[in-house]
């Protein structure tokens, strides 16, 4: 089995090229033929073809138990994300420690940033006796080592199954002087077997507000001119929150973003590691009870929080990841209404420029069919924007989507002629979407990095516009909200369309008459 | 032992200073995990495989990660159910780069995420019925699946489900192995117990219940690769060398592995172990039960590769021994060229390592081959036997840290200022922001393979590109 050495110091080849060399191709063949005892190529081809059929789709949609490639994570990661948007806040996840390693990894892979959170590292003995001692020691250690301004506690499913009581445990730990009595330790129970990361986000926002605002209803809380805004779980939070602050600045509105991760998840490289950076000041969080209104950018990330805020006498308004021209219009009009200030001329100009860009490019978008998946609010906002561009959202899918959400999507689709081929799939997963893509084809998929497997299987180009994006860098630093954000999204979609066009017209002498220089 | 590394640095003083930040109880506990290697020491002088302290930001994971993520997950022709709530499988979905060849979704499932997605009612009423249904649906939608594993998440062991009964019933019904793994995340102190549990399940539910394939013809040259997860193709870059010296690799555990390879393993003449920590259990079992000897080897860097090839060849006849010499000689010019190119750029650079259960020692000589120095190393989930093995690789004065906390590692690095930190994704950006070159040594930072001669060239290139990138020179603003 001697072969020449393909590797070389001059031009080092790694996995991309190395394994395509003849010696490795032969190695794969030998391994397969002699040792793997797999199925015949014919059988694999037959089953592969079958998975693309209408018959398979029916079986696939008849599934009642197994979930395959879902578009949802579990509550604590959402709670952790929410907590990390507050000034100097260290998330403390009560339960098994592996969970925290997973959340930190997941968020780090998307934002390309450090992500700090601690665990109470409960093991078998804690499963039997409860995790009180882990809470007492854990809070003391976390406070001493990492000097946070606030520790936000949430739970893993282990702690939930054994029924640990956070409120009691935290009081107990304070009695034992783990942290000073007046040190803020908001908490939220975040069972992984209820809802998903978006519910965890809601629970933690409510937990933090409850800590600072008190539990009882108080519709008569005095109000000032500030406006609160809750962004929701958003992979583009770095760009988006900054854009919202810019917009508020142009209006002259005092805006408090409740959970602003934009600085914490985008710290500079200048020789100093900042474990905490930016975030909603704790003082502002406390004061936010006096705001005249709270806007939620993502309805499904905030139902309980908004209810709680309402009970403090605030007006509330909710959106579904508003994107595009009319999505932004609605948000700006609401800001104008709440603040009593007109929409700034500069934003009107930005709107005009966005519409100009859409007009310039509409020919490439009109009638294009899209599959959209992700969190419930993202799917709604994205679908609306697509229809505004003359594109057609066809399959709209969210594993976190409910029946109510399906109806809401349907209503949005019914509002435009471009929505007539669209259908919402709540509670379904990306293996369902695979069947849909084979049986009812679309031109493009909008989703996250996990969609690359769908792109590989179906050859339908993927546009990454929602969390998590692991295999493309830095897009989260650019907004998707506001007119500027809409322009970014438009360009991302157009780029993919043009790249796809070029890729489909580049065979010399065969298809390259359409390989146009000007498009 | 040669000259002490970290000369001129008061490493002991640094350790004491870092420990000062802890509350007393935790300080005492953490002190046992930190040490500076002394000359003529018998081992690294640290306690290991002990519970992490709450609230300190351990870098460790859990038993589920050790079983599903490490041992079982890469077996490509089986479907591994993340049994319980949705998160564990979601976070561990496709992140580890265990390369494989196969038609994903048809005859292989390595980059997919299957879960029983527990809801509150499953917790209250138990999930066994649902598990039955999950397995039935999998078998119907993926008829070419050769076996199914049930990877337990935390709630399973707490609510008293009988996944073994489900597994037995389903194995019978489907005529395929269905194996229950009790790798709930709260078991043990780290990933390590998950490896052990996963090994035991292979023993009890594969070896005990299946047979080597009919028609499998043994040869005197049959070996296995145990404990190579084929990160970025590592196992392939190792296999090619073993094949070249005339051996037949009848099984890969578990990177790019199949159920049949597990089943045929008892036919091996010798089990070759790369990751000792995660798979020594099954090797010891096979030695006891089937009389198969096992041997550890190290395919990182040319010094260790040559030594390992010779050690492996020594177990066989003269032809194999001659082949080993031929193979070493054949790759030598390429290795020399790699060292000639990269060593001048890397010589004398100091490295701090913090990884899992094997690499904190196994990669040391690969760095030495490039003229680099290891000034600190430690493991997430090693046991005492790992630290004993480490002592041979590292030099006097090396800082040893077991289950290091984010706080400690940051402080150590801040003061010791190595030229490279070699650790994981959770650590990467912390140190890059501090202006330090970094390589992920779990995932090879999306590069690889690093095993074998082919991999060494990539390793050398990657260390060079990390250390000698101009970005580290523009961190400080000129104003």
From TrEMBL, chain B:
Question: The Nitrogenase/oxidoreductase component domain covers which part of the protein?
Answer: 62-465
Gene Ontology terms, cellular component aspect? molybdenum-iron nitrogenase complex
Record bears the keyword GTP-binding: no
Q: Molecular function (GO) terms listed?
A: ATP binding; iron-sulfur cluster binding; metal ion binding; nitrogenase activity
Q: Which UniProt keywords apply?
A: ATP-binding, Iron, Iron-sulfur, Metal-binding, Molybdenum, Nitrogen fixation, Nucleotide-binding, Oxidoreductase
Tell me which EC number(s) this protein carries.
1.18.6.1
Reactions accelerated catalytically? N2 + 8 reduced [2Fe-2S]-[ferredoxin] + 16 ATP + 16 H2O = H2 + 8 oxidized [2Fe-2S]-[ferredoxin] + 2 NH4(+) + 16 ADP + 16 phosphate + 6 H(+)
- What is this protein's function per UniProt? This molybdenum-iron protein is part of the nitrogenase complex that catalyzes the key enzymatic reactions in nitrogen fixation.
Q: How does it assemble?
A: Tetramer of two alpha and two beta chains. Forms complex with the iron protein (nitrogenase component 2).
User: What is this protein's record name?
Assistant: Nitrogenase protein alpha chain
Q: Which species is listed as the source?
A: Azospirillum argentinense
């Amino acid at each position: 089995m001697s072969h020449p050495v393909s590797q070389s110091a001059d031009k080092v080849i790694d996995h991309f090229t190395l394994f395509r060399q003849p010696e490795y191709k032969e190695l794969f063949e030998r391994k397969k033929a002699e040792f793997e005892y797999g199925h015949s190529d014919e059988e694999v081809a037959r089953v592969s073809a079958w998975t693309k059929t209408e018959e398979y789709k029916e079986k696939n949609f008849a599934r009642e138990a197994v979930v395959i490639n879902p578009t949802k994570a579990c509550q604590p990661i959402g709670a952790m994300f929410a907590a990390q948007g507050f000034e100097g806040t260290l998330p403390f996840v009560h339960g098994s420690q592996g969970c925290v390693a997973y959340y930190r990894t997941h968020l780090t892979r998307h934002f390309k940033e450090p992500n700090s959170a601690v665990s109470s590292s409960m093991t078998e003995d804690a499963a039997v006796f409860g995790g009180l001692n882990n809470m007492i020691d854990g809070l003391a250690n976390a406070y001493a080592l990492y000097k946070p301004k606030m520790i936000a506690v949430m739970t893993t499913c282990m702690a939930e199954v054994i029924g640990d009581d956070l409120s009691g445990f935290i009081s107990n730990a304070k009695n034992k002087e783990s942290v000073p009595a007046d040190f803020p330790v908001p908490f939220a129970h975040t069972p992984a077997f209820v809802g998903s990361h978006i519910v965890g986000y809601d629970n933690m926002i409510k937990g933090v507000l409850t800590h600072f605002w008190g539990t009882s209803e108080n519709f008569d809380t005095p109000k000032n001119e500030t406006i609160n805004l809750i962004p929701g779980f958003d992979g583009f939070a770095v760009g988006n929150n900054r854009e919202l602050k810019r917009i508020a600045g142009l209006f002259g509105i005092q805006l408090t973003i409740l959970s602003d991760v934009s600085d914490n998840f985008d710290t500079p490289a200048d020789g100093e590691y900042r474990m905490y950076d930016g975030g909603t000041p704790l003082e502002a969080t406390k004061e936010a009870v006096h705001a005249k209104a709270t806007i939620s950018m993502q309805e499904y990330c905030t139902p309980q929080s908004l209810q709680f805020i309402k009970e403090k006498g605030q007006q509330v308004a909710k959106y579904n990841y508003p994107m595009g021209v009319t999505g932004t219009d609605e948000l700006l009009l609401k800001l104008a209404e709440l603040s009593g200030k007109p929409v700034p001329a500069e934003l009107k100009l930005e709107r005009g420029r966005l519409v100009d860009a859409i007009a310039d490019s509409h020919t490439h978008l009109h009638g294009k069919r899209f599959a959209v998946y992700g969190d419930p609010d993202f799917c709604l906002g994205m679908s609306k924007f697509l229809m505004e561009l003359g594109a057609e959202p066809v399959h709209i899918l969210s594993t976190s989507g409910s029946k109510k959400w399906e109806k809401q999507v349907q209503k949005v689709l019914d509002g435009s002629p471009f929505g007539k081929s669209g259908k919402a799939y709540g509670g379904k997963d990306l293996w369902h979407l695979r069947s849909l893509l084979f049986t009812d084809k679309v031109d493009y998929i909008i989703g996250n990095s996990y969609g690359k497997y769908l792109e590989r299987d179906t050859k339908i180009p993927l546009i990454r516009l929602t969390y998590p994006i692991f295999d493309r860098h830095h897009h989260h630093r650019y907004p998707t909200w506001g007119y500027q954000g809409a322009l970014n999204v438009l360009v991302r979609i157009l780029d993919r369309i043009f790249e796809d066009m070029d890729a489909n017209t580049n065979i010399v002498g065969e298809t390259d008459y359409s390989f146009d220089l000007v498009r | 032992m040669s000259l002490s590394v970290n000369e001129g640095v008061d490493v002991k003083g640094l350790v004491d200073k870092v420990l000062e930040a802890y509350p007393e109880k935790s300080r005492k506990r953490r002190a046992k995990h930190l040490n500076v290697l002394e000359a003529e020491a018998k081992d690294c002088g640290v306690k290991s495989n002990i519970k992490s302290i709450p609230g300190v930001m351990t870098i460790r994971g859990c038993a589920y990660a050790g079983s599903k993520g490490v041992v079982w997950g890469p077996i490509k022709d089986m479907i591994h159910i993340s049994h319980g709530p949705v998160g564990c499988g979601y976070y561990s979905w496709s992140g580890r780069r265990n390369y494989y060849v196969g038609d994903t979704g048809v005859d292989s499932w390595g980059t997919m995420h299957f879960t029983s997605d527990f809801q509150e009612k499953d917790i209250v009423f138990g999930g066994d019925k649902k598990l039955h249904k999950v397995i039935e649906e999998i078998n119907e939608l993926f008829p070419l699946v050769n076996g199914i594993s049930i990877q337990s998440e935390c709630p399973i062991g707490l609510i008293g489900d009988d996944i073994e009964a489900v597994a037995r019933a389903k194995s019978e019904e489907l005529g395929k192995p269905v194996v229950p793994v009790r790798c709930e995340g709260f078991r043990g102190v780290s990933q390590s117990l998950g490896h052990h549990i996963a090994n035991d399940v292979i023993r009890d539910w594969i070896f005990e219940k299946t047979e080597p394939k009919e028609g499998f013809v043994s040869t005197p040259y049959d070996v296995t690769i145990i404990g190579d997860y084929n990160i970025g193709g590592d196992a392939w870059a190792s296999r090619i060398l073993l094949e070249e010296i005339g051996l037949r690799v009848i099984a890969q555990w578990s990177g790019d592995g199949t159920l049949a390879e597990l089943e045929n393993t008892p036919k091996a003449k010798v089990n070759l172990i790369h990751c000792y920590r995660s798979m020594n259990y099954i090797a010891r079992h096979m030695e006891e039960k089937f009389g198969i000897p096992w041997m550890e080897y190290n395919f990182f860097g040319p010094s260790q590769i040559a030594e390992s090839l010779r050690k492996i060849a020594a177990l066989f006849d003269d032809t194999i021994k001659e082949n080993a010499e031929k193979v070493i000689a054949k790759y030598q010019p390429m290795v020399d060229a790699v060292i000639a190119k990269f060593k001048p750029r890397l010589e004398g650079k100091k490295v701090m390592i913090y990884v899992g259960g094997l690499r904190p020692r196994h990669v040391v000589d690969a760095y030495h081959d490039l003229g680099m120095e290891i000034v600190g190393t430690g493991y997430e989930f090693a046991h005492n036997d790992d630290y004993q093995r480490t002592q041979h690789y590292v030099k006097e004065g090396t800082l040893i840290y077991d289950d290091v906390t984010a706080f400690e590692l940051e402080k150590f690095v801040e003061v010791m200022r190595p030229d490279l930190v070699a650790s994981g994704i959770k650590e990467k950006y912390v140190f890059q922001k501090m202006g330090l070159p970094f390589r992920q040594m779990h995932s090879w930072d999306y590069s690889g393979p690093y095993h074998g001669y082919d991999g060494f060239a990539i390793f050398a290139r990657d260390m060079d590109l990390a250390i000698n990138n101009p970005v580290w020179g523009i961190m400080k603003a000129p104003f």
